[in-house]
């Protein structure tokens, strides 16, 4: 027992930055569950919480990479809203298919990101100023796009299913667990088994290569915790309507960006540029190219965010995108990204976005006044940054 406690203490000390936001998220959810009499953890509310987080989560992932390379992008909120309006206009007024509109919007978002990156890279305009100009321009563009009707109702069922639809169930086993979405249960169980398999395989490979690994007791507890959480969420979602397409998009986006940042040369170069741009340039890394790629990625994700938001509302409005950029940046900082650059994980920023959405969802459920909501969100963001500074100073 003493050995286990020693291992646990060392683990928490070495990984405090990585797990702090997970602990915070669980604590917040527990508080809201208690105050709401359990309503917060109801299948319907958890499903809504996931869908409400989608358009902010993809922006938070993009902002993570932007902040990692020591920049900021303030334009993403109204760019997201404007691109959602473009999708609505293409489908409603010009009769584009949902797929065509989505491709065009994602392409326009990428070009907008390249424009921001070019202003920062080649004209040496500070990212704050360049993207603030974009914030103003896209705000105006959104007002122009929706000027005629104020709200553009989207009637394309395929497009609207992205933000409101769920994956289909298995029709041939309706008699088994009739109150649960069977395909969701199957996906969750398979995912839990795969996590165990690949975790054990990866640990064995690391030991074989002589790398340091977690003590076996801590490793097993961590693995058990992850699988238990995954299965719990799976059963909650399955008790409602299953896995939403928004969640599918979030998971795919997170997996792709996690792979890029952790397993590719591009990812290593992004963190190298964020850690020390001058040293990265001297080592042969094309800093300008990396900056353009990261900003282009941010623009692409802004388009994706606009699609998720417009499809969820089934409309484009004049206020779409309001405060999106601030929630995304807050999510990234709560997730542990460092303002000094070079530090930040995609999965942690996803959790940070969930922290922001959970606070908003829970406070709305409890009927907290909107003025107090903003104050509480500000306090949480300030606490996250203070925690980041404190842990970094200890590491030094």
TrEMBL record:
Signal sequence interval, chain numbering: none
Coiled-coil portions: none
GO molecular function: transmembrane transporter activity
Membrane protein topology class: Multi-pass membrane protein
CDD domains the UniProt entry points to: TM_PBP1_transp_AraH_like
InterPro entries per UniProt: ABC_transp_permease
Function per UniProt: Part of the binding-protein-dependent transport system for D-xylose. Probably responsible for the translocation of the substrate across the membrane.
Protein name: Xylose transport system permease protein XylH
Native species: Thermoanaerobacter thermohydrosulfuricus WC1
